[in-house]
């Protein structure tokens, strides 16, 4: 078990670990070597890097870490993480797919769920054609690091024309008794005219030490496919999460993604979506709640490459205590992407004078026949509305809760799975208390 200390830099230890383990890892060694070379050139970002200027990476990686964790859980310990009654479940414990804890009985015809290691051998044609083919490892050091060092994860394939009624729940569990760095990787491929609902939840469980999860999920959406994607982040105060979602859509596909950040000491979300075909529709929704000294950093990139496509983005934040939240949303409209409709909005409520929000919506437009807009707003709870509710018999606390719930409802109402919506609303209600 390799231990990271300050005598040797974090980057040096990653490179050393890669050299010692590279021949035992799944997939293409050439791809991994290219990725570690890219990571070596980029290095661990500091506040001088524009994309990470509001995020203290040193805080995430402070102290000593082990690069692998051998902690094990049993079914009883993770029962509460399986909050959907009717769902297929893939459990990822410390970055490794655990079949015995997953629920994959009676999978319908046309649905495959297994480990990435198994997919690289038994579903080699699909795996090699789709894995890491739409990810630019030179664009982000943590994506490069994950590509180089990922040990395992979930592989999900929905065959052409197959409609999966039950949600598929990927449960990411971090647990450790020593500070640990986890590299989890998932690949989801949804073939032509197929439909599926994917839920990813992140939780730190039974940990007595800090965990840094560098998680990356790739989603490939073929022509006319429909994908609903949900991300529920509920780490504890020892949980540090850097979550990257890389999506490519082909023509006439529909993708909706919903990110709910409920807790975690530090959470960074990278969401990159490529619209690579005509008549594509994309929806991005996010809600983040912060308190105490938490930090939540959302970075989204929507890349319109072809004409006649629509994207809509709405992120909302409720920031309290001495916490910090960041929203950086980019929309690219390429030269050939005429008739693009792209809209982006970020709205925030500050509950404390010590809370901080950094918001930066961006548009880069290289086509001339488009409809694009972006906007941001930040404020406090409306005192007049609080006064009005108090005149109707509500306490000040109840009035504020009601206004915060109304503010969050625009994002909560985008959840299309009733059981999931009830779960998230219950979590948020507890946070408002």
Tell me briefly what this model is.
By secondary structure, this protein is α/β, with parallel strands linked by helices.
Structure report:
This protein is of the alpha/beta class. It has two domains: 3-276, no CATH class; 382-433, no CATH class. The longest helix is centred in the C-terminal third of the chain and has 17 residues, at 396-412. It has nine helices and 21 strands. It starts with a strand and ends with a helix. The model is unreliable at 1-7 (pLDDT under 50). Helix content is 22%, strand content 40%. The strands form three sheets. The protein has a ten-stranded mixed beta sheet with strand order 4-3-7-9-11-13-15-17-19-21, covered by helices on one side. The chain has a nine-stranded mixed beta sheet with strand order 5-6-8-10-12-14-16-18-20.
Structural key phrases:
433 residues; alpha/beta; 2 domains; 10-stranded mixed sheet; 9-stranded mixed sheet; 9 helices; 21 strands; 40% strand; disordered N terminus
- The span between the termini is 42 Å
Poorly predicted regions are 1-7
Helix content: 10-25%
How many alpha or pi helices?
9
The residue-averaged pLDDT reads: 92
Number of domains: 2
* Strand order of the biggest β-sheet: 4-3-7-9-11-13-15-17-19-21
Give the number of DSSP strands. 21
What general form does the structure show?
A: globular
Main sheet properties: 10 strands, mixed
Structural class: alpha/beta
> What is the element string, with H for helices and E for strands?
EHHHEEEEHHHEEEEEEEEEEEEEEEEHHH
Q: State which percent range the strand residues make up.
A: 35-45%
Radius of gyration equals 21 Å
């Amino acid at each position: 078990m390799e231990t990271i200390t300050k005598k040797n830099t974090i980057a040096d230890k990653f490179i050393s670990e890669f050299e010692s383990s590279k021949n035992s890892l799944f997939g293409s060694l050439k791809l991994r070597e290219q990725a570690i070379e890219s990571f070596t050139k980029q290095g661990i970002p500091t506040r001088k890097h524009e994309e990470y200027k509001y995020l203290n990476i040193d805080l995430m990686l402070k102290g000593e870490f082990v690069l692998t964790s051998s902690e094990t859980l049993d079914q009883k310990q993770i029962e509460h993480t399986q909050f959907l009654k009717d769902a297929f479940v893939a459990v990822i414990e410390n970055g490794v797919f655990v079949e015995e804890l997953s629920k994959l009985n009676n999978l319908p015809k046309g649905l495959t769920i297994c480990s990435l290691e198994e997919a690289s051998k038994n579903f080699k044609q699909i795996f090699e054609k789709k894995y890491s083919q739409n990810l630019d490892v030179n664009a982000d050091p943590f994506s490069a690091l994950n590509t180089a060092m990922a040990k395992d994860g979930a592989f999900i394939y929905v065959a052409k024309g197959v409609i999966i009624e039950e949600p598929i729940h990927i449960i990411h569990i971090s647990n450790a008794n020593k500070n640990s760095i986890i590299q989890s990787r998932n690949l989801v491929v949804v073939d032509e005219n197929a439909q599926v609902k994917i839920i990813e939840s992140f939780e730190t469980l039974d940990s007595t030490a800090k965990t840094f999860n560098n998680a990356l999920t790739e989603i490939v959406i073929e022509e006319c496919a429909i994908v609903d994607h949900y991300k529920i982040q509920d780490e504890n105060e020892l949980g540090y999460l850097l979550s990257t979602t890389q999506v490519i859509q082909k023509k006439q596909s529909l993708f909706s993604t919903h990110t709910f950040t409920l807790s975690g000491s530090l959470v960074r979300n990278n969401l990159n979506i490529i619209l690579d075909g005509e008549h594509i529709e994309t929806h991005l929704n996010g809600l983040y709640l912060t308190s105490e000294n938490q930090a939540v950093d959302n970075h989204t990139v929507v890349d319109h490459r072809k004409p006649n496509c629509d994207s809509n983005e709405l992120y909302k934040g409720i920031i309290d205590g001495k916490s910090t939240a960041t929203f950086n949303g980019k929309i690219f409209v390429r030269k050939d992407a005429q008739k693009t409709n792209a809209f982006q909005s970020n709205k925030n409520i500050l509950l404390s004078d010590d809370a901080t929000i950094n918001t930066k919506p961006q548009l880069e437009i290289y086509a001339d026949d488009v409809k694009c807009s972006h906007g941001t707003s930040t404020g406090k709870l409306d005192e007049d509305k609080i006064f009005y509710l108090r005149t109707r018999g509500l306490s000040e606390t109840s009035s504020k809760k009601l206004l915060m719930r109304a503010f969050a409802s625009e994002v909560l109402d985008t959840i299309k799975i009733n059981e999931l919506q009830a779960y998230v609303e219950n979590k948020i209600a507890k946070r408002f208390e």
